[in-house]
Amino acid sequence: MKQLVLKSAVIIILFATIFAACSQKKEVSSKDLKNLVDSASYCLGANMGKQMMVDKMEINPEVLMNAFYQAYEGDTSLLIREENMQEVIVKYQRTYEEKQKEAAKEKGKLHRQTGEKFLAENKSKEGVITTASGLQFKAVKQGNGNTPTDEDRVRIQYRLKLIDGKVVESTFERGQDPVIMGLKNIIPGMVEGLKLMKEGGSYLLWVHPDLAYGDMDSPELPAGSVLCFEIDLIEVVKDSNLK
Which has the closest alpha carbon to 1: 122, 181, 135, 205? Predict the structure, then answer.
């Protein structure tokens, strides 16, 4: 499951040093891509520009290009001393991350309102049980084997959907073998649901965002989303029988 992409200082610095080698404002045509170096340079520049646009990173392209040329040509008279660059990048990254969090929180308000309405209606449906934490579940099939603990791993098949029916992930659709997950490495709502199950069981889970990814935002999982799981618990996996 993808999470909110936050560019590290290392990646930002790397992007700044590999910006496509073409002069400012100069139009580049296919005739300028004369060899592999030219083509790779173009691809690196296009990828960086696209990624920064997607991540809504605020940059000044002209300043970036000037700094790129200075560094690439070995000019040591940089406007900011190299020993101070890390501090600037870290400060920028923190500011960027805070803006991303605020934007995701604002975006999440609408999804949370829609999700709360969905859960309020869903809890009254036949067979649906709501726990003290707010997790909603329904036993499609009760198992008769072991129940996992926090220290265990589980072998499961699962399908994750949003409340609008969009499938985000599914081992069923992929036709793959069941996946193995450690309970320590998954979201609280899924952990709680699995600990209610026994091997051989099939459950539906409806997970409030506060038991999932909260207001973290990504194209696949918008901020504030209620998650809908279909889970088949195949096996509680111990180290001794892990294959």
Answer: 181
Which stretch of DSSP H or E encloses residue 33?
A: none
The 10s digit of each residue's pLDDT in 81-119 is 888 888 988 888 888 878 877 776 777 788 999 999 999
CA distance 239 to 32: 58
Query: How far is residue 223's CA from residue 214's CA, in Å, rounded to a whole number?
Result: 7
Does pTM top 0.70 for this prediction?
no
Residue 64, CA distances (Å) to 12, 37, 204 in order: 11, 21, 50
Structure tokens at 138: 């329904």
- Which domains does the chain carry? 9-79 (no CATH), 115-241 (3.10.50.40)
